[in-house]
UniProtKB/TrEMBL annotation, chain A:
Residue span, RRM domain: 54-132
Biased composition, class Basic and acidic residues, residue ranges: 21-36
Gene3D superfamilies the record matches: 3.30.70.330
Highest taxon in the source lineage: Eukaryota
Keyword field: Cytoplasm, mRNA processing, mRNA splicing, Nucleus, RNA-binding, Translation regulation, Transport
GO biological process assignments: mRNA processing; regulation of translation; RNA splicing
Region annotation Disordered: where it falls in the sequence: 1-47
Protein name: RNA-binding protein 8A
Main localisation: cytoplasm
Subcellular location: Cytoplasm; Nucleus
InterPro entries named in the record: Nucleotide-bd_a/b_plait_sf, RBD_domain_sf, RNA-bd_8, RRM_dom, RRM_RBM8
Pfam families in the record: RRM_1
GO CC annotation: cytoplasm; nucleus
Automatic annotation (TrEMBL), chain B:
Any one of the GO CC terms: exon-exon junction complex
Organism from which the protein derives: Gonapodya prolifera (strain JEL478)
Annotated protein name in UniProt: Protein mago nashi
Keyword terms of this UniProt record: Nucleus
SUPFAM superfamilies: Mago nashi protein (SSF89817)
Length: 153, 151
């Protein structure tokens, strides 16, 4: 009825605020429908392969970092075939994260292992795969995550 | 148990081409759902889902926390109208906001509103969230998130 997607009744301790809690006839919740596409690719460990490669997220990126800085550092682990270094829309500086794309699992994994916790322009950066094969922190931990059919391309 | 965390954003309108909208949500387990329906020039509905890693969820949480959106309130913001509506729902640190307002064309609309400071926080946060989501969707699915008709 309302526009609120979360099951608010199940969260009695939450402090609520906003007009979205008033019932106003509402609209259909598109996100509650079925039929969402996902990438049907094998993963490796808990990481999920993307359509054309492996994406890692780098956080703690200095606000004055440039694409060249990132490229220079991450090309050491393999060819960086794509990168998004998004800016803060208000300040125009780097928002603080970068998404870096490699062809192979091995390149991505080596980059993560090589750069996680390292200093980058005076800040420690954190590196990890951006996509995962399933829910995190939940009960449904996947046991057989080896990617038997060539997941480690 | 993982701390409750949820983010949902919607922007859309009913128009000449039907219900055109963009909507996405992140759940605390990392599930990202993305739907975009623009009927303009026969674009079709895009509906994608993927799990993001805890690192992405943490970064998203940081972006929201640093925006201080949880301190704001939508009570003085422009009401949704025929031009369109936006909704932002966030659950973070035992607080649950569900804000609703009209589309915001530019910063001038923000300045002219009754709550320019609050609306400005919303205006920039929404852009930063869309920017993150478009990058994730574009890189993972190799599709253009299809934002031609949306602000």
């Amino acid at each position: 009825m309302g526009d609120v997607a979360m099951d608010v009744d199940a969260q009695p301790t939450l402090k609520r605020k906003g007009r979205g809690f008033q019932h106003d006839g509402g609209r259909e919740q598109e996100l509650k429908k079925e039929g969402f596409d996902s990438v049907d690719e094998e993963g490796s460990g808990s990481a999920q392969r993307s359509v054309e490669g492996w994406i890692i997220i780098v956080t703690g990126v200095h606000e004055e970092a440039t694409e060249e800085d990132i490229m220079e550092r991450f090309n050491e682990y393999g060819h960086v075939k794509g990168m998004h270094l998004n800016l803060d829309r208000r300040t125009g500086f780097v928002k603080g994260y970068a998404l870096v794309e490699y062809d192979t699992y091995k390149e991505a994994k080596t980059a993560i292992d090589g750069e996680n916790g390292k200093d980058f322009l005076g800040h420690a950066i954190h590196c990890d795969f951006a996509f995962s094969r399933g829910p995190v922190g939940g009960a449904r931990v996947q046991q057989n995550g080896g990617g038997r059919r060539g997941g480690r391309r | 148990m993982a701390e409750e965390f949820y983010v949902r954003y919607y922007v859309g309108h009913m128009g000449r081409f039907g219900h055109e909208f963009l909507e996405f949500e992140f759940r605390s387990d990392g599930k990202l759902r993305y739907a975009n329906n623009s009927n303009y020039k026969n674009d079709s509905m895009i509906r994608k889902e993927v799990y993001v890693s805890p690192s992405v969820v943490n970064e998203l949480r940081r972006v929201i926390q640093e925006s201080e959106i949880m301190k704001e309130d939508d009570k003085l913001w422009p009401m949704p109208d025929r031009v369109g509506r936006q909704e932002l729902e966030v659950v973070l640190n035992n607080e649950h906001i569900s804000f609703t307002t009209s589309k915001i064309g530019s910063l001038a609309d923000v300045q002219d509103s009754k709550d320019p400071e609050g609306l400005r926080v919303f205006y920039y946060l929404v852009q930063d969230l869309k920017c993150l989501v478009f990058s994730l969707i574009a890189l993972h699915f190799k599709v253009s998130p299809g934002v031609t008709t949306l602000p």
